[in-house]
Amino acid sequence: MKKNLVVGNMKMNPTSPAEFERYLDALEKEVKGKKFEKTEVVICPPAIYFKQFIDRKLKNVQLGAQNIFWEYQGAYTGEISSGMVKNMGAQYSMVGHSERRKYFGEDEEIINLKLKAILKSGLRAILCIGENIEERKRNQTVEVVKKQLREALNGVGAGKIEYVDIVYEPSWAVGSDNVPTSDEILEAKLIIKKILSEIYGHKAMERVRILYGGSIARCFVNQVCIDPAMDGGLVGRESLVPYEFIRIAETIDKN
Ligand code: 13P
Fold first, then answer.
1. What is the DSSP string of 122-189?
2. Domains in the chain: ranges and CATH
3. Ligand 1 pocket: which residues have CB below 6 Å?
4. Which one of 13, 98, 174 would you pick to mutate in the ligand 1 pocket, going by the greatest count of ligand atoms within 8 A of its CB?
5. Which of 110, 159, 183, 225 is found 20 to 30 A from 28 (Cα to Cα)?
6. How remote is the CA of residue 170 from the centroid of ligand 1, in Å?
7. Given the CA of residue 97, which atom of ligand 1 is nearest to it?
8. What is the pLDDT of residues 190-224, one digit of tens each?
9. Model-level pTM greater than 0.90?
């Protein structure tokens, strides 16, 4: 049976190794001796802190990258490849996050290149899709989700799709404390499943985890993850507080 997945996206936080060390102290305290029965827990800190994370040797928390470049190595100033991330000991990389789309102009073509690079290096991909506020107002959620998913997965073979975890994360719900209703999330999930079925067939579709992301907090987790029977969640701000993050993971693990 596939496990749930709870991912903490720390974004561009914290600002010093000392602060990250304190974060790790608190996280270690929360997870020590804890057994998540049916949930994988992943933290995606800034890559500059990977070594610190690895050195902690936390048994029940895995490491993920927030972003990678699609080439494996070479003259690409400032970039980090998926191979480097993998060789540091990470198991996951995010791709397609709405902040990458908004601030760095990442479009479907770039996201597709990055997704394929992630899979090629042997990492699992956490692919984020979802509509922005204008698209929501124009009632375009269905077509946006369809387009983003189809184009991101272009050229990803049936043998690889089970290494892709898909997050429905509408950008208007990110950092806002506005969350969709359970029905809206369920609807997005069914669209994602339908497209996966069309491309890869029913059996392969059933193996793909579909998560929710956007303002997940303890007070919303039932509405946005449990009620629509999501396979987990992508947590932003609340992942910066280990106590809250682990309570969210536990709630998802118990349901
Ligand atoms: P918040 O949980 O802070 O809304 O961020 C969500 C997010 O962007 C996770 O990737």
1. TPEEEEEE---HHHHHTT-HHHHHHHHHHHHTTT--TTTGGGEEEEE--GGGTTTS----HHHHHHHH
2. 4-253 (3.20.20.70)
3. 9, 97, 174-175, 213-216, 234-237
4. 174
5. 225
6. 10
7. 10
8. 999 999 999 999 999 999 999 999 999 999 999 99
9. yes
